[in-house]
Amino acid sequence: MKTQLPFYRKLLSCGGVAVAALGTVTAQTNSPAPVNPMVQAMMSLPPLNTALPAAITVELDPPVVAPGEVAYFRMKFNALDSVVAGPVDVVPPAGLEMTPSARGQVLQLVGGEMRPVTALNFRVRAAQPGRYVIPELLCEVKGQPVFAPGATLTVTTNLPANHLPARQLILRPATSNAFAGESLTVMTYLPQSAARTIEALTALQFIGAGFLENKNAFRQRIGRVEIDGQPQMAYVGESQLTALAAGAQKISVQAFTAGNQFSGPIVITGSTTIPGGVPSYTLLESEPVTIRIQPLPAEGLLPGFAGFIGELTRAQPLLSTNALRIGDALQLSVTFRSEQSLAHLNPPAPPRASGWEIFPGKIVDTPPSAASSGQNEITFAYTMIPLHPEARQTPVIPFSIFDREKLAYADRSIPALPIRIIPDAEAVPGELESWTAAETAREKPLGLAALATAPSKTVASLVPLQLRPWFFGVQLAPALALLGLWLWDRERRFLVAHPKVRRRRQARRDLRRARSELRRAAAAGDAPAFGRQAVAALQIAAAPHFPAAPRALVCGEILSLFNATERGGRTGEVIRAVFAHDEAASFARETNDAASLCHLHPELELVLEQMEGWL
Fold this sequence. Notes:
- The protein has about 625 residues and is of the alpha+beta class.
- The chain is elongated, with a radius of gyration of 49 Å.
């Protein structure tokens, strides 16, 4: 071992150098992988703390109400919404209505970490004055039972002078009647509090089926609005909803108060006070509002309708050039303007025009023009290629909208614009703005290929295979083959399970062949052959009734199948005569004259028919 140690040390030292060299090459050739901006933004967020012990706080807003007035029983959990269950088996006191109304979740930044807040709201209402005690409520947080403290609601007709109703949001849609597919403007108001302070809203969510919210079109401001006939300062959130389902649709809104933490830019007009400190994150909600949605009329529908409802104006379309050669591309751009949001407006589909190749339109970014006057605008661009020298104008692109004011479809098609096709002989440098030396180079004209010296394969008809009459049968052939295979296998299994049925079927087939041979022997007058076939037929017909082969049966066994009258009558005489002749022909040295045996053929046929009926 001592003599081998230096060798291994050298080997390890060489290996270390090789590994070090390899690592150096790798470090020089491999560049660091780029970091995903979204992953980088997520990694920069504060950590989420979900290991806090379960805690529940409750609030009754307001604690004193008039008969029939709504109060809100609010519960807040310091856990994620997915691990909060409850309360379970809510049993309010007699005379008090308590129904769940809202539920939401928000993340709160505390001490450099995010903490979850889950809120549950209940609407509380009592018709008669009195004191109503809401008992402790059993909830589950992370699978563990937790009790929420109760509260006492006082219902009285003598309200204090400083009584304020429950704090809630106000939802005001721009219209209570809309069409399916129309974009609606909906305002969410949060009036200032009793202390004349205004808080921001976060996690704003609309509750109700049949509407789709456009998150990118949300705007917020603080200003003076009219509420219950009185102007007052309020937080205003402007949202865009798209009506999807027809009928009377109810919708409400809920959101958390966020103090001075505004998400995004906000416009403030007037004087107001915004509270500081840590937000309370109180879940507020609004009364539901009914919006009647009706479908668009089918009468008067114009070509190119893409679902836009409202007012839309079109600017004059522009061409990148109005003089070009066959095969050159030009760009047609057109701008549309509207007071409404154009986020969901798609370019109209181009038509299939003869002599033109038109690519689908795309949205291009353009700076706002002076003609927009603060309106929303969008620009579509189409790439067109003329394919015919007689083209004199661009094709019309059909486009229509539904005018909300006129309650009718309006045409906003992109009109045709004049162009001029320049022949190759007239084309000179500088006539087209986009020409270059490479683009004006003449290409070699195309020509026909050499004709074939021999005809290729021919077909009897140009009708496709799937349209020919026999194609349907070919499609059914695999199914019929599978059906036949299944029927055969079912029959095989049946015969294996019932061997007697198989023996009777085989006996009937063999009996028919024996009777055919018997008839031929009788017709030819061949008495020996007739006798042999007669005995064979009787044995075959009787074999299924005995556990023996047909050739092993004797006359007495066959006669046992008949009753006593038949055995002693003509039937027994015929059977005995046939077997007597067969035994004489087999064992006697001299055979008797059996010519008279063929005269028994009619009677023997009756006997065989009777025995065949037993099979």
